[in-house]
Amino acid sequence: MLKTFPKGGIHPPENKLTSSKPIQRLPVPKVVYVPIAQHIGIPAEIVVDRKDKVDIGQVIAKSGGFVSSNIHSPVAGTVTKLDMIVDSTGYKKQCIVIRTDAKNASNFVETEYPLKKEIELEPQEILQRISDYGIVGLGGATFPSHVKLNIKADKKIDCLIINGVECEPYLTADHRLMLEKAEEILMGIQILMYALNVPRAIIGIENNKKDAIETFKKLMLQEPKIQVAALQVKYPQGGEKQLVRALLKREVPKNGLPLDVGVIVHNVGTIFAIYQAVQHNKPLIERVVTVTGKKMGKASNFWVKIGTPIKDLITEVGGMPEGTRKIVNGGPMMGKALKNTDVPVTKGTSGILVISEDEASRGETKPCIRCGECVSVCPMGLEPHLLMNLSEKGMFEHAGQEDILTCIECGSCSYVCPSHRPLLDYIRFGKSIVKKLDVSKN
Amino acid sequence: MDSPPIVISASPHVHSDRTSKRIMYDVVIAMVPAFLVSLYVFGINAFIATATAVVSCLLFEYLIQKYLLKAEITIADGSALITGILLAFNLPAGLPIWMIIVGSLVAIGIAKLSFGGLGYNIFNPALVGRVFLLVSFPVQMTLWPTAVENNTTLADAVTGATTLGIIKDGLQFGGTMTELSAQLPSHLNLFLGITGGSLGEMSALALLLGGLYLIARKVITWHIPVAVLGTLALMTGIFWWADSEQYANPLIHVLSGGAILGAFYMATDLVTSPVTKKGMLIFAIGIGVITVIIRLFGSYPEGISFAILIMNAFVPLINKYFKPRRFGSKIKAKIV
Ligand code: SF4
Ligand code: SF4
């Protein structure tokens, strides 16, 4: 029996079209658009000005507080503008526009670093490096990694969990990274175990990535402290709380964090970024992005510089297909639909999914027939039909009592509802109001 | 840049292909075997009754929505069709047509649309229609044409009695189960459908077949039917064990009096049953217990219709008190 979380979950068609496509390098864009709010928390503060020459990897916006992150220039070039542009959230955000210097060789030579095994830094230096080098959660949440790693003395961590689940349909960025950079990821895990003094680590991978499981199992033969766990394919297993439950049978308390049950969870992509920062002095200026869609002939995985406009990616895979209805930043379950393709890739962009007419169409909303499907798939044990109803009627206090804030916005409820009710839309709305109410109360 | 016509809506961007409509039509398909048996047993009468109920349910829904409520017409969603078939299944063959029409009006007009239509009704519409007819026309509603007689004379209702009716009357007049057994159909006949009773409750076999289809298609789960029939069997079993002369055996109880029809097709109505599995079990056990009380101690021999309606009324309460366990609300795991 493969491990999984016991309550709720769905199994949408996997559609992993690009799992056998090696990660290619996208040509360096002529212009990059680097937003200063690419992470959860306080936006970074711009420290360059128009016409400034910047180097590749130079800090161009400084962390604006503890829950914030530095931002580095993905290219060598000239700052041409400090502008407001629409980012993946759909809102206009401050952004640094840099024209790539076509003559600067550092933009084009791609150093493939040899695997470096000895760790030279002290634990404290490692954590500082992670903070300085702009590492944030690359699984999509973009939570600044150093905050997660800042463990108060009264908390004890006994297990580091590496999230290689990639439960979103279509996305294969983590899968490819695990296949191509397994040894580096292993080093990254060891670096973190050393820095945090954690005795063991488990890497959780869903069973639809058997090759990745095999690769790691072979590698870990000499590493008794690191386990590889194959997980049953079930969405949303990549959710931290679900993953911790699946791997360790520990349940993170209602308003708590994995830290409360002695666990830290990091995505494989983040681990790789940590490895590069610590061993090769490389800040987070690029990431793997899956560019995919049923009608995308050349769908594949790419190394992409942060700030690359999404249209460059789409051009690379053969242009926008006929009948495109949606462009999604991320996977089909939790990704954000984009207004246009000028939006840049940010640290949180794990994939670009192009959805056509037939796939995007949502059925007409019908009355709730109280079938209970939404209740049985909710991994958080909520009653989505009730939460939607309460939000619709403006009964936010009651919605709060029904734990609306614990919703992880996985979308499983909306996915299964046979009456096509926009459950999550209303729950999101309800959550935003309940949060405000809570704040005003305190 | 050429910008394509793009939709911006919130996630999730994909959707399962299960729709309420498909669920409804699965229920209709599940009722086909029982309908065929009723045609075989009651001939044209079964067809007339079912057609009347279905057409009037659809028509009333259409007329009321169009002229009274001036609302969206929803007759294509399949739910009125189900109500019609279920209502007919709960009636004796040969019931005057106008009564069937009245029953349909009550089911659709009062039990469904006056509550706000599909999804808002508290009581199972078909059952409300049936119980209304039973209370208003007790004589006609308990004239059960029997299988054999009906094959010769089509329209004449004969005062046959249902299995449970025979037992109830017999026991009341001082009979014992041994004495009554000669008048009762065999267990096998009960199972196959050669017995007295309403249109749809004839053949346990046909109903189970449809019920399994519903479970296989994930329209219903096992919880409600198993708990209803289990409770029924267990409780009647205890009485039978205590005194097998005064109480019928549990197999008779399960196979007759519409227990299977009720447990698989009416108690499981999505709208009028609880949403959680826990709630479903409580609801179903309640139905089982009330059915037994009515059958053994009340004045109606069948009882399951009333039991379901009574428990329907408790569904909002059950939904309120039997909630799913919230993730992280009670920490069992220990930190090693
Ligand atoms: S899945 Fe849809 S129809 Fe079913 S109970 Fe939930 S909201 Fe209602
Ligand atoms: S209510 Fe929230 S957590 Fe539950 S299924 Fe819906 S989106 Fe997921």
Automatic annotation (TrEMBL), chain A:
One of its GO terms (molecular function) is metal ion binding. The keyword Protein biosynthesis does not apply. Binds 2 [4Fe-4S] clusters per subunit. Residues 358-381, 398-427 form the 4Fe-4S ferredoxin-type domain. It is a peripheral membrane protein. Its cofactor is [4Fe-4S] cluster. The keyword Oxidoreductase does not apply. Belongs to the 4Fe4S bacterial-type ferredoxin family. RnfC subfamily. The complex is composed of six subunits: RnfA, RnfB, RnfC, RnfD, RnfE and RnfG. Part of a membrane-bound complex that couples electron transfer with translocation of ions across the membrane. This is Ion-translocating oxidoreductase complex subunit C. The gene is rsxC.
Automatic annotation (TrEMBL), chain B:
One of its GO terms (biological process) is electron transport chain. Keywords: Cell membrane, Electron transport, Flavoprotein, FMN, Membrane, Phosphoprotein, Translocase, Transmembrane, Transmembrane helix, Transport. It is found in: Cell membrane. It is a multi-pass membrane protein. InterPro entries: NqrB/RnfD, RnfD_bac. Its main location: membrane. Signal peptide: none annotated. Its cofactor is FMN. One of its GO terms (cellular component) is plasma membrane. Its EC number is 7.-.-.-. The modification FMN phosphoryl threonine is found at residue 162. It is an enzyme of class 7 (translocase). The chain crosses the membrane at residues 23-41, 95-115, 127-144, 190-215, 222-241, 247-267, 279-298, 304-322. NCBIfam families: rnfD. Part of a membrane-bound complex that couples electron transfer with translocation of ions across the membrane. Belongs to the NqrB/RnfD family. The complex is composed of six subunits: RnfA, RnfB, RnfC, RnfD, RnfE and RnfG. This is Ion-translocating oxidoreductase complex subunit D. It comes from Ulvibacterium marinum.
